[in-house]
Amino acid sequence: MTFRVHRAAFTYGLFEATFELAQPGLIAIAGPNGAGKSTLVGIMAGLRQPYLGSCKYDGVEVGRWRRRDFARRVAFLPQTIRLEFPFTAEQVVMMGRTPHAGGWFESPEDRAEVTRAMEITDTLPFRSRDFRSLSGGERQRVILASALAQRPETLLLDEPATFLDLKHQLALYRLLSSLAGQGMLVVAVTHDLNLALQFADRVLLLDQGRVAADGTAREVLSPTNIHRVFGVQAQIESGWLHYEA
Q1: What are the tens digits of pLDDT across the range 79-121?
Q2: On the CB side of 33, how many CA atoms lie within 13 Å of its CA?
Q3: Which CATH architecture has domain 3-83+152-243?
Q4: DSSP strand pairing (154-158 vs 185-189)
Q5: Closest Cα partner for 187 from 3, 26, 72?
Q6: Count of alpha carbons within 13 Å of 28, Cβ hemisphere only?
Q7: Cα separation, 44 vs 133, whole angstroms
């Protein structure tokens, strides 16, 4: 489950990003708006092409993977998803089993994985509801369940807590931390530096399309780096960041 990114760049928003992710853990990608966070995770997911430089997963350039094989190993959770048809929440989660499908019908294993994914994302109570009728936060949790139903070894997430209330933000990051502790590589784009500080094993801090800092959350999210990248004064008190007006 190793990502090796070398001088990766895109036509806009990303310039020569270089790093390696070779171990399980929760990796946060942070930075100001326009820093290249979503572009970077999109390249890693194989969705932003063509790009310059190199982005390899287990030694193979992401663009050269067979999509079905890649999807069995790497799941991607976008910021939003729009569905125009009346799928239930459970049907949306079942879509995550597509890379493992062996025919037209769901297998007992597929149904078991869907139930498991909905249990751990607290989405079973509305499994039969029309996905379009759900709140933004409920939709986000259903999409996460769909990604987990893939049984990936690597999970990429672009702003997964955007539509969640505080309770579910914390629950989500506890879940991501738990998945990382069980051996998954979890890479999450986030604007919330306190969530990154509390839960991430490692932080990549982007600034103007480049990696400005890379290390543990405490090392990277220092008051000095925050002032340099975000232009605001911050202090860490009792393990939390506090910003000065």
Answers
A1: 777 777 889 999 999 999 988 776 566 788 999 999 999 999 9
A2: 0
A3: 3-Layer(aba) Sandwich (3.40)
A4: parallel
A5: 26
A6: 29
A7: 31
